[in-house]
Amino acid sequence: MKRTLSVLIACMIGAAVSAADLGDDGLHKTPWMRDTFKDLREDLEEASGEGKRLVLFIEQRGCIYCKKMHEEVFPQPDMAAFIEENFFVVQLDLHGSTTATDFDGEENEQRALMRKWGILFTPTLVFLPEEVPEAASAIDAAVAVMPGAFSKGTTLDLFTWVDQKRYELDNGEDFQRYHARRIQERNNISQE
């Protein structure tokens, strides 16, 4: 019910939802992104306190694929409402010189953490579990990683898959099977 109400409200004010603005750092900014001290342990604690899941958005200045996501996918009212209601979003810069602290306690420039995590593409979304082992890095603890720009359907399916903790289910339906099923369900609805 809570989700339905949020989506309905977002649809009613859909004209007010627009593409993200660029910040001084050249990265896209949306109302649902959090401005934090980038201590991922604290961010996870705050996300949990709000009943949300932590997701890291890794972007870079001038990224045409980040721009595509921020102009075509994230501004769609149902997408924006779902993210804002269920996720605590922290933005990181692939080439950033400001510091961030990983779950394992390592504090370093964001660009060094990106190298440590093996992040090569932007945008990359890193979805974290509700609890991260103390010695784990963010990338080692991630329940899902989405490198690249995808359509709204794929993106919303991944956010939903993570939100529903489908990665924990032992039903043989990994994300690809879940996504294929959701595509078929959407196609069936559109053919009615």
UniProtKB/TrEMBL annotation:
Signal peptide: 1-19
Domain named Thioredoxin-like fold: residues: 47-133
UniProt keyword Signal, yes or no: yes
Pfam families assigned to the protein according to its UniProt record, in alphabetical order: Thioredoxin_2
InterPro entries: SoxW, Thioredoxin-like_fold, Thioredoxin-like_sf
Key words of the record: Signal
UniProt xrefs under SUPFAM superfamilies: Thioredoxin-like
Domain of life of the native organism: Bacteria
Descriptive protein name: Thioredoxin-related protein
